Each structure stands twice: as C-alpha cells, then as structure tokens.
Amino acid sequence: MKRAVRVLAGARPRPLPALALVLTLVAGGFAAWTGQDWYRAAHDDRAAYAAQRDAALAAGEQAVQNLNTLDHRDLDRGLDLWESSTAGELHDQLASGRDEFAEQVKAAKTVTTARVLSGAVTELDDRAGRARVLVALRVTVRASDGAKTDKDSRMLGELTRTGGRWKLSALGQAPVGGTPAG
Amino acid sequence: MSTTRHHINRQRRRRDRETRSAAVDASPERAGGRTRAGGTAVLPAPRASSAARTAGPAAARTAGPAAARTAGPAAGPVARDGGRRERKTGRTAGLAVLCALTLLLGGFAGWARAQAEALRAEPARGNTALTDVARTSEIKGQTAKAVGLLFSYDHTEPDALGKAAKDLLTGKAVGQHAALLADVRKRADERKAVITTTVTESAVERIDGDRARVLVYADQSSVATAGAESSTGGGAKGEDGADARDEGVYAGAVLAVDVVHRDGRWLVSGIDTFGR
C-alpha cells in the first residue's frame, strides 16, 4: 500500500516528459537511420557505375547512328557530325579520308539513314573511361533513282570518355563466320 | 527525482507526526524483541524510526489515506505553490523543446527517406546489367547456350529441338519460337541439313530483378549432308543461304531475347527478331 501510494503520488507528473523523451529518441533513431540510408544511396558506387553505363550506351547508340547517316545534299553537316561523334584513331581516319569520301557520296547521290534496333554495353571500365557496345542497326540506303534498300548491321563499337563525354573510338561490323566467342 | 523523494518524505514526516503516538504503542513489542536478542543495542532513535517505518504500513492503512486526503490539499498548495510553478514552467519549456526536436527529427527522417527513395527510383539503378557482375555473366552464359540450342537443328535428331523448346522456353516465346522454326525445320528435313547456331556476341541490355533482356549476335551455319541431288544448305534466317551449296552457309543474325529467372535458371520468355 505504501508502494502504491508512492507510485501514485510520485509517478503522476512523470508520464508526459518521459513519453516526450522516448518519442524524441525514437525520432532521433529514425533520423539517424534514414539519414545514413540516404547517404548510402547518394554515394552508391553501383549507381555511379550504372549512370556511366547508361551514358556510354546513349552516346554509343547516337554515335553509331550518326556514322550511318549521310545525305549527299548536306554532306558537310553530316561529316561534321561524324567527326564530333568520334575520338582517337577513328576520328583521325574520318578526318583524313573526309574529302575523298565526300566525293564518292556526291557522285553516288545516296541518302543513308539509320535506326537503332537495340544496343547494349558489353564492357565498361569506369575509371579508364572505356566501354564496348553492341549496337544493332537498320540502315536504309536510298539511291539516286529512288530505290530503297534495307540492311541490318551488327555493329561493335568502342567508346572512350574524353572531357566527360563518351565518343566512339572504334567501330566495325561483327564478323560473320568467325570463331565463336562466348 | 528530488521532487518525488521530497514529496514522499514530506508525506512520511506528516504521517509520522500523526502516528507517533500509535508508534509509541506499537514499538515496544518489536523493539523489545530486538533488544532481547541483541542484548546491548540500546539506541532509541533508530529503533523509534524503524518502528515508525515498520509501523508505517499499519498506520498508513488506518491513518495514512485519511491524513493524505485531509492534510494534503490543505497543506500542499501553501507549501508547494512557489517552487512548483517555477518547476512547472521549466518542465513545460523542456517538453516544448522535446516536442520540437521530435518534429524536427521526424521531419528530417521523412525527408531523408524520400530522398533515398527518389535516388533508388532512378532508372539507371533499377537496371543492374553490368553493375551486378555475377548475374550479368550468368545471364549471358545461359542465354547464349539457350539460343544455341533453340536455333540449331539436326534432321537426324528432330526431337532434340522439341526438348530444348520445352526446357528453355516459357510464355509467348513458345509460340514465337515455333513460328520462327517451323519453316526452317521443314526445309532442313527436306535437305537433310544440319543447322548450327552459335552466339558470337551478346550483351545484357537490362536486368530488372528476375527479368532481363539480352542482345545477341549469332552465326548460323547450315550444312546439307549427303543424299539429295539438290542438296542446298538453307540458311535458317540468312538472306543469302537458299542457293548456297554443300559447304555450309554462314549468316549473321540479330536477336533480342527476354529471359526470366525461374527455379534458378533463366528461361527465354520472348524472342525479338526486329521484324525479320
């Protein structure tokens, strides 16, 4: 009974501050947990890698499409786009062969357009800034007489990151009848 | 804490005052018992207080509640008023701070959670192709194998294709595969051909949990074996395979294959030949 009296008399003013304290501590715990979670989400290496992968693929698809698009009536713009989409050796090749190539296309009077069917990154070295992509293309060539031909291209591209941008540094057709890999 | 003790002590003192006479009556029995046992200890004060304490419950049972009820309200307000008001404002301020802190922390928690969710919802993260190295290579390997089996046909073992289809296909891929292969199969049977498909390159476009999409470059070789005079190798899907001779014809194909993870294996659930 004495105990009961003590509890009754002593505990009465307590519950509110105690409850408030508990709630504050719980809120603090939540804040710490979610804050840490947020920090982890924001500094996730995988996320940064995934972002690079998507950037490389987007740039790769666009560059491959650019290099398979050319209108004989607007050669300069098309070839400028070729050069701006590429880097390294491929860029040098295109730049050095530009005039000759322009003559050929002018003579053939062709309009080439390309549509990306699908693309994917096979390898990505985030630090070195290198990536390898597969880009499947449907290339449409319209000859001067209006004849239209469609052809699917299986491209293998290599990308290099220069100045924060991914550019195509090598491009070729996947060989047919070669040795299987993978 | 001090307030409780304070309060209790005050109550006890009050009770003691009122029950002292009772305690005097009650103590001799117990105190006497103890002195008889201990012999020497003649310390009246502790004995009296311990008596009071032991007598307390008894007294409290009779006098306590009544005293508390009657004396409490009468004496309380006068004695406590000043200090209690100060304490009360201090306590209210403390409570307010705690409440504000709770709201602040709770708000931050909610906001941080929303931020984390928003970051995780980014499409780049949802796709674990390449970021999940083990899974990516597992998918590549199994898809390459599946495509090899599903698009190869040997006229001497016509059942192998059916078995592969049963093992490796699911969903709408079953129909797609049947439609793609029906014609090829018929021609291969006529020409006693062996069609072999080998994946030369593949890349995982997207992995989203237990679903994935793989871009596949495959070579198809078609070899017409023995017999028939008009032994021409029919390229399975190759454009220029129809008229080629014996040696075997290679044709390159592009496929996008959807796969799903079932029972620890990746099954083909969709085949996209890009309209070819």
UniProtKB/TrEMBL annotation, chain A:
* Gene Ontology CC annotations of this record: membrane
Q: Where does the UniProt entry say this protein principally localizes?
A: membrane
> Which keywords fit this entry according to its UniProt record?
Membrane
User: Which InterPro entries does its entry note?
Assistant: NTF2-like_dom_sf, SnoaL-like
Domain SnoaL-like: from-to ranges: 69-170
List the subcellular locations. Membrane
Query: What name goes with this protein?
Result: Mce-associated membrane protein
Which organism is this entry from? Answer: Streptomyces calvus
TrEMBL record, chain B:
User: Where are stretches of biased composition, namely Low complexity?
Assistant: 37-77
- Biased composition, Basic residues: where in the chain? 1-15
Residue spans crossing the bilayer: 93-112
Q: Which domain of life is it from?
A: Bacteria
Tell me which UniProt keywords the record has, alphabetically: Membrane, Transmembrane, Transmembrane helix
* Taxonomic source organism: Streptomyces calvus
Q: What is this protein called?
A: Mce-associated membrane protein
Localization in the cell: Membrane
Q: Which residues form a coiled coil?
A: none
Q: What is the lineage of its organism?
A: Bacteria, Bacillati, Actinomycetota, Actinomycetes, Kitasatosporales
Say where the protein is mainly found: membrane
Can you name a GO cellular component term? Answer: membrane
Location of region: Disordered = 1-90
